[in-house]
């Protein structure tokens, strides 16, 4: 009987072991474990809810795993919705707002009604054109050197060159430089030959350059309409309106009232003298720069030095043994008679009623470039007190 019981217990133990083994196998293959997917190391990183393009990366990862995540991030970005793509592109291409800037810097040419030429209208000299071709009807002017110049080729251009340097700021005080070119040239060529834009740029001053076309490519110093009373004043008002169209209407008042420096080289002396004498803008004239240009009109220049209402400066650079040196000696005598002090060297700083008469050892055509001083317009502007 003992043996029978032992055999029964042994068989029972075997049956219980089999049942336990079957239960373990069933537990390993439960539905919950089957849906869990691969282990964490093989799972794709989950997308963060905070931003659709960012991934949640639990813990540190090996370089290989980082590379895999980068691939997954790219895949996720490619699968993003059209709206999210539009947002990303918009942010990437949107430019930061730029600071308000002047609308125009640079050089341009406009035609003005009040420009020196064409010489027409009321109160013009009827003998200015003293010859008419009987066949064509074309008018000509005979110069003092007996050269006959046609109206259509030399006296019809109403161009005015404007140069607004890159440093110009209309919100700050500024000055006009009205430059009268010499003979046998035109405004664009004159500006290039004497590096006027470069001189203004190197001065770093807040100025606008204005060059009216005089007799074009002609040996003639005629002032044209600037010989008439108040035409220069009208010219500067028209200049202001042209610049307003470039810079903005809110600057019109400043453009109409800004002070003016008058400069002339060689034959440009005549329109400058007329602008001083009868131009109508006396209160705005800040100073005069003559570059080997004191040929005539000593009475006009002397009167302006003596009575100018703004107390402006007068600088005259003249070449040795020239007609300009001869006229400068006469001017010196005038200054002595009226006890007006003057200097014979370049000023260190321009003051009101500063008078400088400077001899140049250089050739006449080089004076606007080498003075002395070197690049006299630039040096003048550097010494200018705004």
Give the SSE map.
Blueprint: H1 2-28, H2 31-35, H3 63-78, H4 82-93, E1 106-111, E2 131-132, E3 139-142, E4 148-150, H5 151-154, E5 159-164, E6 175-180, H6 187-193, H7 196-203, E7 207-212, H8 231-247, H9 252-257, E8 260-265, H10 269-278, E9 285-291, H11 298-307, E10 313-319, H12 323-337, E11 355-360, H13 367-370, H14 376-382
Parallel strand pairs: 6-7, 6-8, 8-9, 9-10, 10-11
Antiparallel strand pairs: 1-5, 2-3, 3-4, 5-7
Description of the molecule:
There is one protein chain. This protein has 14 helices and eleven strands. It has 386 residues and is of the alpha/beta class. It has a single domain (106-382), classed as 3-Layer(aba) Sandwich (Rossmann fold). It has an eight-stranded mixed beta sheet, with helices on both faces. A three-stranded antiparallel beta sheet has the order 2-3-4. α7 (196-203) packs parallel to α14. The termini are far apart. Residues 1-6 and 21-101 have low confidence and may be disordered.
What would the keywords be for this entry?
disordered N terminus; eight-stranded mixed beta sheet; three-stranded antiparallel beta sheet; 386 residues; single chain; alpha/beta; 11 strands; 14 helices; Rossmann fold
The percentage helix is 25-40%
Poorly predicted ranges: 1-6, 21-101
Helix/strand class: alpha/beta
Total of helices: 14
Radius of gyration: 43 Å
The name of the CATH topology is Rossmann fold
Q: Judging from the principal axes of the Cα atoms, what is the shape? A: globular
Major sheet summary line: 8 strands, mixed
In total, how many domains does the architecture comprise?
Answer: 1
Listing every helix as H and every strand as E from the N terminus to the C terminus, the arrangement reads HHHHEEEEHEEHHEHHEHEHEHEHH
Would you state the CATH class?
Alpha Beta
Q: Record the strand order, biggest sheet.
A: 1-5-7-6-8-9-10-11
The CATH superfamily appears as Alpha/Beta hydrolase fold, catalytic domain
Average pLDDT, to the nearest integer?
81
Q: What's the CATH architecture? A: 3-Layer(aba) Sandwich
In total, how many beta strands? 11
Termini gap: 132 Å
SS strand fraction: 15-25%
């Amino acid at each position: 009987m003992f043996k029978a019981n032992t055999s029964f217990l042994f068989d029972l133990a075997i049956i219980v072991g089999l049942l336990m083994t079957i239960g373990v196998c069933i537990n390993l293959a439960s539905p919950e474990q089957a849906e869990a997917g691969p282990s964490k190391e093989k799972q794709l990183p989950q997308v963060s809810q905070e931003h659709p393009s960012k991934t949640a990366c639990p813990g540190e990862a090996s370089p290989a795993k980082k590379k895999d995540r980068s691939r997954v991030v790219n895949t996720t970005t490619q699968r993003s919705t059209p709206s999210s793509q539009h947002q990303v592109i918009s942010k990437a291409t949107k430019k930061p707002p730029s600071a308000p800037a002047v609308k125009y810097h640079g050089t341009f040419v406009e035609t003005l009604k009040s420009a020196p030429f064409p010489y027409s209208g009321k109160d013009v000299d009827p003998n200015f054109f003293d010859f008419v071709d009987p066949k064509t009807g074309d008018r000509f002017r005979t110069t003092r050197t007996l050269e006959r110049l046609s109206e259509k080729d030399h006296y019809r251009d109403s161009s005015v060159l404007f140069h607004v340097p890159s440093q110009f700021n209309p919100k700050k005080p500024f000055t006009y430089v009205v430059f009268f070119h010499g003979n046998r040239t035109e405004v664009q060529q004159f500006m290039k030959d004497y590096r006027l834009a470069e001189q203004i740029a190197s001065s770093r001053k807040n100025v606008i350059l204005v060059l009216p076309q005089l007799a074009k490519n002609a040996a003639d110093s005629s002032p044209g309409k600037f010989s008439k009373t108040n035409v220069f004043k009208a010219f500067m008002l028209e200049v202001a309106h042209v610049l307003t169209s470039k810079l903005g209407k809110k600057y019109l008042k400043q453009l109409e009232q800004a002070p003016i420096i008058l400069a002339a080289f060689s034959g440009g002396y005549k329109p400058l003298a007329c602008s001083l004498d009868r131009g109508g803008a006396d209160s705005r004239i800040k100073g005069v720069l003559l570059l080997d240009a004191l040929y005539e009109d000593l009475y006009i220049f002397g009167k302006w030095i003596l009575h100018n209402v703004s107390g402006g400066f007068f600088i005259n650079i003249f070449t040795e043994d020239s007609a300009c040196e001869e006229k400068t000696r006469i001017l010196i005598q005038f200054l002595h008679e009226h006890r007006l002090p003057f200097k014979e060297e370049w000023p260190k700083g321009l003051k009101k009623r500063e008078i400088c008469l400077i001899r140049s050892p250089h050739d006449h055509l080089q004076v606007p470039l080498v003075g002395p001083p070197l690049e006299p317009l630039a040096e003048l502007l550097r010494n200018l007190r705004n």
